[in-house]
Amino acid sequence: MKKYFKLLIFLSIFAILHFAYDLFGTWILKIFSGTDESVFSHLKIAFWSYFFTILIDYFYFQARKKEFSIYSNLLINLILPWFIVIIWYIVPAIYGKIKSELYEILWAFFVLILSGIFSLSIEKDLLKSKYSILSKISIIILFLLSIFFYTYFTFSKPWVDLFQIP
Question: For the chain, what are the domain ranges?
Answer without folding.
Answer: 3-163
